[in-house]
Amino acid sequence: MTADRRPLVAANWKMNKTNTEAREFMQSFLPEAEGIAADVDIVVCPPYTALHTVTDLATGSRVRTGAQNMHEEDSGAFTGEVSAPMLLELGVEAVVLGHSERRQYFAETDAALARKVPRALHAGLLPILCVGETEAEREAGETERKLRHQVQSDLAAVDVARLPEVVIAYEPIWAIGTGKTATPEQAQAAIGFVRALVSDRDAAAAQDVRVLYGGSVDAGNAAELMALEDVDGALVGGASLDPDRFLSIAAAARP
Ligand code: PGA
Fold first, then answer.
1. Catalytic residue set
2. pLDDT at site 179
3. What is the pTM of this model?
4. Closest CA to 86 of 120, 61, 113
């Protein structure tokens, strides 16, 4: 983490919490989060069904709301999908794109992400683009090849002028939900490499772009990970379901 980039922590609730549970979380989370959010961007990404409740409760606070996915078209015959204007109307400000679970279980492609990322930016949503390798890819020495492919393809249509606004989350798939965190050396090496890939497009943008770590982040390891030079925050799954655990992680991101 460096003083030049504002830290960001995002809660990815995945398919967890009903509307009622989301309300309960926010009621306990918001009063404590407000002070931390003066120094750290905090984004809560509930399922679509709880977006309205979360944005409503967060209105007037510094905490922002994100969706977990978005279609690149504004409207049309795309059953089950949700578009940027629909999210914006609710007060949503960010969107997670290309999470490995979307890629693995729902056939999310790099070609679709190459359309979604610029669409989100154009709509005024903060895109949080997820990239990362499988365990087999890491063992085969393919981590950099995979990251290069994802970063280059998914950001191909983003104008250089808007590159600094993209947030990239490096999430090694073998560390997601497994309790197996990347070591600080692994996280720094991969995230430094992601930043270098952005630098291939534009050196100044690479200094400004925020790169998060994700994969079994919890209160016990957050501070060590955030202290790494190129790590600008965290994308948190399991540990973000509990307000106190997520608050500790957010507090650890304070510069
Ligand atoms: P985890 O999930 O923190 O539960 O490992 C992270 C993520 O998938 O974003």
1. 99, 171
2. 86
3. 0.98
4. 120
